[in-house]
Write a structure and sequence with these properties.
There is one protein chain. The protein is an alpha/beta fold. It folds into two domains: about 160 residues, NAD(P)-binding Rossmann-like Domain (Rossmann fold); about 170 residues, Dihydrodipicolinate Reductase, domain 2, CATH 3.30.360. About 35% of the residues lie in helices and about 20% in strands. It contains 13 helices and 14 strands. The strands form two sheets. Strands 3-2-1-4-5-7-6 form a seven-stranded parallel sheet. Strands 9-10-8-11-14-13-12 form a seven-stranded mixed sheet.
């Protein structure tokens, strides 16, 4: 039974991760690391865990690797995570990293958007992007998986089938994405204060959100073509959930005239026919955040109009967009049944 360590155990995603791992029959949580000066029990940080796990947290240090763990989930922020990951890999520990530090194969692209030198040149070239639906065979063989975030997961899974089939123009894609407040993380900040975000919807990162180049980068690699999109995220006053509305143009007029809602949905059914966490919806009953809340599902629907192909996708940002997907990746890396702990 693999021993699990969580490095950065105070995050919202770490709480969800702990909950999932506690019901996983093949693993044991043996280490919880925090960037604090004290050593509280995890049930003191998250009282909902009282009576389920009362493990004392340890203070993590850059030059130390916890003993006796086989798999490490690293839930530290971008630019911080890469200070810890190489030591875990060197010790033979499998790593699922939640930050963006290993999501780009192009080091220069990472440094452009995160404004810092990448200090792990070996890791960034060897890491596998952690979307099992698209990269399962590579994830099976890797020791380092770059767990995608919520916006990227919902967008990439929605676009991949039509891009890989050559149905839509890869240079004319518009993504309107909306996220619950937990997507901004647990650290206190003005824009997530109750009085700021309640009864309010606002766009942010317009024309310069870091997830946009990540989405373009991954889809360009996967589809062997240049993918370019306009991506605008919005913060909405709810705890959790992501809804993406994506507007695409058919690659040519012949494709547009031959395609209808049923034919478009059939492309998705064929592409995702063996995927346990993709649920396809009729456009008459489109994806809703309430339907995927607290699950690892991604719900997708597609509508063909005269001018555009419209794709809708919904995920729980804390589960399929973070902790659930990380456990899905762990299951693939360790040879477990992929749905284990998640259904």
């Amino acid at each position: 039974m693999p021993n699990i360590g969580i490095i950065g155990a105070t995050a919202y995603t770490s709480l969800e991760l702990i909950k999932i791992l506690l019901r996983h029959p093949e693993v044991k949580i043996s280490y919880l690391g925090v960037r604090r000066t004290d050593r509280p029990k995890i049930s003191e940080i998250f009282p909902s865990l009282q009576g389920q796990i009362d493990l004392e947290c340890d203070i993590i240090r850059e030059n130390e690797v916890p003993a006796n763990i086989d798999v490490a989930f690293i839930t530290l922020p971008p630019t911080v995570s890469m200070k810890y990951v190489p030591q875990f890999i060197l010790k033979g520990i499998k790593v699922i990293d939640f930050s963006a530090d290993y999501r780009f194969q192009d080091r220069a692209l990472y440094e452009k958007w995160y404004k810092t030198p990448h200090t792990d040149s070996a890791g960034i070239t060897k890491a596998i992007y952690g979307l099992p639906e698209l990269f399962r065979d590579q994830i099976k063989k890797t020791r380092l998986t770059a767990n995608p975030g919520c916006y990227t997961t919902a967008t990439i899974l929605a676009l991949a089938p039509l891009l890989m089939k050559g149905i839509i123009d890869p240079l004319d894609i518009i993504v309107d994405a909306k996220s619950g407040v937990s997507g901004k993380g647990r650290e206190a900040r003005e824009d997530t204060h109750y009085c700021e975000c309640n009864e309010n919807i606002e766009a942010y990162g317009v024309g310069g959100h870091r997830h946009c180049p990540e989405i373009e980068h991954v889809l360009s690699i996967k589809t062997n073509q240049t993918v370019s999109l306009q991506f605008v995220p919005h913060l909405i006053p709810m705890n959790r959930g992501i809804l993406c509305t994506i507007y695409c143009k058919p690659k040519n007029k012949g494709t547009a005239s031959a395609l209808n809602d049923e034919a478009a949905l059939n492309i998705y059914k064929e592409f995702y026919q063996k995927e346990p966490f993709i649920r396809l919806r009729e456009i008459t009953s489109p994806p809703k955040t309430k339907d995927i809340s607290h699950t690892n599902f991604c719900d997708i629907a597609v509508k063909v109009t005269e001018k555009r192909i419209i794709i809708l996708s919904a995920i729980d940002n804390l589960i399929k967009g973070a902790a659930g997907q990380a456990v899905q990746n762990m299951n693939v890396m360790c040879g477990f049944i992929e749905e284990m702990g998640l259904k």
